[in-house]
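Subgroup meeting minutes
Present: P.N., E.W., G.H.
Scribe: E.W.

1. P.N. recapped why we're keeping a running log of single-chain structure predictions: easier to compare across weeks, and new members can see raw inputs and outputs side by side.
2. G.H. added today's entry (465 aa).
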Amino acid sequence: MKNTILKYIILPNFLILSLLINNSCDRFTEVGLPKNQITREVVFKDDQLAKSAMAGVYRSLDEQGFLSGAPSGAQLVLAAYADELQAYGSATTDAAIFYNLSHMATTDKIKNLWTITYTQIYNINAVIEGVENSDSLSSEVKNRLKGEGYFLRALLHLYLTQTFGSIPYVTSTNYQVNQSIGKLGTSQVYAQCKTDLETAVPLLPATLAVGNRVYPTKMAAYTVLARMAYYEKNWDSALQYSNLVIADVQYKMEADLNKVFLKDSSGSIWHLLPFGATYNAYQGNVFILNTAPPTNVALRQDFIDEFETGDQRKAAWIGQKTDAQNKTYYYPYKYKQYYTSPTSLEYSVILRVEELYLIRAEAYIKKGQYDLGIADINTIRNRAGLASLANTTDQNILINALIQERRSELFTEFGHRFYDLKHYDFADVIMISKKGQWRPYFKLLPLPASELLLNPNLNPQNDGY
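Output recorded in log:
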């Protein structure tokens, strides 16, 4: 593919296929032009066209990359890479490659994940630049789109650095800059993410109504800032940002576990809109087993066995299918809709308030405020039908309980388990016990070999690869 500077923005509906097709570029700084191209200058003279440009970004996020629940998304392979899913397909499938830890720097899925994500970032930057340079858009639309752009750019870079380590932080569509861009360390990436999120906050709406949280809000930005503080073990910031969301009466945990992943869930902070009015989140189609044995993935037996007796999440969020030999397989059943319904019932939940209770619990525990930490853990446990933890000041007991709650609450949701294993610094201990071929350097994926050849400034390769 020839090197080109993107001067065009891709619109959804009649151009959305071009957006998806053109993700197969040779490097993340190359983005092909759709056949029906509309110049940026035209798009950003009209509020509706500008909003449609950002809608194309959201459609891409739902279809591919770190935030996608689709078969091509990272959610499935990261769960197989850690200790949640077992692969049953051929050794060449993406899930099997990650499950078997046979990935390499030349693995197609790794290259695609990198390229797709940077293509998404590139298109986000195109929206930000188009909005900033427009003198025709209304101030309301300009603020909203810029806020969404900064938020999305931060979140995607956060996933990249959590997965690959040192990475480029791309803030421009300038090809001459991007073709030789270097890497930043994780702490530097975090700093850039914070800057983008803090820039986004005053531009975003405070909240959106239940069932319509398909765009980022201030609450979504606070949630990502809280997650970053959790990763960095900055417990004061973790408390600050988690409190901002939990204190908002519009964001409440659903008492009924079967309502958590419905589009009208009050605990949903941000979710992605499905493809059409009768479509549902991809996760039901990806995970639900209609036949057994599985042809792609199912939950690991040791994961099932680790649920505490009486945990209602096991009944509500895990389905099962038995084959002709009477062997039972288990699958994630958080999303109940396999395909379409008369109207959409389930949206793909990217951020939800339960995560903030778990982040705040750890912050309280680490700061020695054990009673408050226990109360937050018990909020999650009690909703799942489990008895409250007894009061204790033993930090090890409380952290182990918290780890189990995160495992049972957030399983198969966009890599939480993989990133948690690293956060608690027990990835090697856990993974070696479950996958003998695990190596310490597997805590990061390799940088795509093709990218290192095209841009030497991305060297060195991650250790071990």
